[in-house]
Design brief:
Layout (H helix, E strand, L loop, with lengths): L12 H16 L3 E4 L7 E7 L5 E6 L1 H4 L12 H8 L4 E6 L11 H6 L1 E4 L2 E5 L9 H12 L6 E4 L2 E6 L2 H18 L9 E4 L4
Parallel strand pairs: 2-5
Antiparallel strand pairs: 1-6, 2-3, 4-8, 4-9, 5-6, 7-8
Pfam families: RVT_1
InterPro entries: DNA/RNA_pol_sf, Retrovirus_Pol_polyprotein, Rev_trsase/Diguanyl_cyclase, RT_dom
GO biological process, one term: DNA biosynthetic process
C-alpha cells in the first residue's frame, strides 16, 4: 500500500479553542508530540464531542488501516460469557480509562500515526482510537495481564468480575485493583459498577 498524506480537516470555529487546549493537554501528558520532520503517512484528525461536552481527539486512519496487519486476538462470544457467568450472584464491571492510551508505540509506529491539524502535525506516542487493530491489541494486553485470575473476563476496555458471594467478589476485586495499579492501569469511576446483582 502506498503511503497517503491527507489534507487537514477543517474544525468548526466554535470548537477551535477547545481542540487546541485538548491537544496541549495530550502533549503535556505525552500522548502525542509535535512532528516537524517529513513523514510518509499523514492522517486526518477526528474530533469527537462526548456527552459531557469534553473532546476526544482521534485518528482517521482509513488509508493507514489498509496497510495495517491485524492482530486477530479473539474476543469472547456471548455464549462463552453466559457459560462462565452461570451461577454467579455478584458482579463488578471496571472500565479502563482511556485504555488505548496506556499502550506506548515504538518510534516507527508513532510516525505512522502522524496527523494533521490547522496548527501543525502531531504523532501519537500511544495507541490511538481509530486504528483498526487497536481494540484487539488492547484486549490482548488486558487479557494477558489478568489471565491468572479466576472469575474474571476482559472484553475490550471492560473487565468483568463475579462471585457467588459478596466476600468472594470483594477478594477478587482487591487483587485485580492491586494488579492494575502495579501495571499503571486506571479505571473510570463514572463508568465502573461495583457489587451489582446483575450485569448488562
Amino acid at each position: 500500500v502506498e503511503p497517503v498524506i491527507t489534507p487537514v480537516r477543517r474544525i468548526p470555529h466554535v470548537l477551535q479553542s477547545k481542540v487546541k487546549k485538548e491537544l496541549r493537554l495530550m502533549e503535556n501528558a505525552k500522548i502525542i508530540e509535535r512532528v516537524d520532520e517529513p513523514t510518509d503517512w499523514v492522517n486526518q484528525m477526528v474530533v469527537v464531542v462526548k456527552k459531557d461536552g469534553s473532546l476526544r481527539i482521534c485518528l482517521d486512519p482509513r488509508n493507514l488501516n489498509k496497510a495495517v496487519k491485524r492482530a486477530h486476538h479473539p474476543f469472547p462470544t456471548l455464549d462463552e460469557i453466559s457459560a462462565k457467568l452461570s451461577g454467579a450472584k455478584w458482579f463488578c464491571k471496571l472500565d479502563a480509562q482511556s485504555g488505548f492510551w496506556m499502550l506506548p508505540l515504538d518510534k516507527r509506529s508513532s510516525r505512522l500515526c502522524t496527523f494533521q491539524t490547522p496548527w501543525g502535525r502531531y504523532a501519537f506516542l500511544r495507541l490511538p482510537f481509530g486504528l483498526n487493530s487497536a481494540p484487539e491489541i488492547f484486549h490482548r494486553v488486558i487479557s494477558r495481564t489478568f489471565e491468572d485470575f479466576e472469575n474474571i473476563m476482559t472484553f475490550q476496555d471492560d473487565i468483568l468480575l463475579w462471585g457467588n458471594t459478596k466476600e468472594q467478589l470483594g477478594t477478587g476485586l482487591e487483587k485485580v485493583l492491586a494488579r492494575a495499579k502495579s501495571m499503571g492501569i486506571k479505571f473510570n469511576p463514572n463508568k465502573c459498577i461495583f457489587f451489582s446483582k446483575e450485569v448488562d
